[in-house]
Amino acid sequence: MAPPAQAPQPASQPPETKPPMTNGMMVLRLIRFTAIGLILMLLGALGYMQWFRPGSLSPDRAGGLVTAAEMQIGGPFALTDHTGRAVTDQTYRGRWMVLFFGFTHCPDVCPTELATVAEALGALGPDAGRVAPLFVSIDPERDTPAALAQYVTLYDPRLTGLTGTAEQVSVAARAYRVFYRKVEPPGSSTYLMDHSALTYLMDPDGRLAAIFRPGTTATDMAAAIKAHIARRGG
Ligand code: NI
User: Fold this and answer.
1) Which of 21, 32, 137, 199 is the most buried (most CB within 10 A)?
2) pLDDT single digits (tens) 20-31
3) Ligand 1 centroid, distance to 197 Cα (angstroms)
4) How far, in Å, is the centroid of ligand 1 from the Cα of 193?
5) Regarding the domain with residue range 59-232, which homologous superfamily does it belong to in the CATH classification?
6) What does pLDDT average to over the chain?
7) Other CB atoms within 10 A of residue 34 CB
8) Torsion angle of the four alpha carbons 220, 222, 225, 228, in this order, in degrees rounded to the nearest 10
9) Bridge pairing between strands 180-183 and 160-163
10) Cβ contact 87:125 at 8 Å
11) DSSP assignment letter at 6
12) In the predicted structure, residue 174 carries a pLDDT above the cut 90
């Protein structure tokens, strides 16, 4: 048998040498990277401002459809309510869920949003009976059902506080794309929770109907909820 004509040459060839970069080329490359970086940062900032813009959804948006990406918000959860009862998302089917994720030790956003939801319930009149306003704790370590019971009823007796195990809370938060993390301020013996602060209106089938940004007024929130209820015919 004849020997192979040529043995394979694994990487025996000298690597292609690139011409050495001149200072000018390096500067150009740096400028290019910087420009791309700046453009990406600008786009990110614009997206962020759009999403977290304070105030309510515009009136046409309030009664209109949500985007395809937003339609994926929502899903199954299994938690414990502030009376100690085990509940799931199915518990609230047939009612309009108004969900807000937060924690009872929150110094600013949660109290404001809960007060807004409570005021919106008042503005809804009899329609409030079709709504299940839910405050979901993302701090289950401290927010026991008893702690939640004390807290939510300060705002409105119709509010329901929900908590659970760390895993149950994580599942619920993931379904609603809610971000949260523990923050320990230096020199403090306690901790805070960083968390996203959107309020979700889910229809009686559990589908997303509207998203309220922090700072939405109770009047706007109630009007949007009323519009959705009327459009669906109950
Ligand atoms: Ni908060």
Assistant:
1) 137
2) 667 777 777 777
3) 7
4) 7
5) Glutaredoxin (3.40.30.10)
6) 85
7) 10
8) -70
9) unpaired
10) no
11) S
12) yes
Asked whether 180 and 169 are in contact (CB, 8 A), the reply is no
CA distances (Å), 183 to each of 26, 103, 166, 171, 233, in order?
Answer: 41, 13, 16, 20, 44
Task: Give me the amino acid identity at 58.
Answer: S
pTM exceeding the 0.70 threshold for the entire prediction = yes
- Which of these, 134, 154, 11, 19, lies nearest to 79 by C-alpha position? 134
pLDDT digits (tens, 9 = 90+) for 55-85: 444 333 444 456 666 778 999 999 999 999 9
Cα(27) to centroid of ligand 1, in Å? 46
Average pLDDT estimate for 134-146: 98
Give the list of residues 6+ apart from residue 190 with CB closer than 8 angstroms, or none: 105, 184
**Residue 157 confidence (pLDDT) above 50:** yes
Nearest to 95 by CA among 2, 212, 202, 190: 202
Query: Residue 115 Cα, ligand 1 centroid: separation in angstroms?
Result: 12
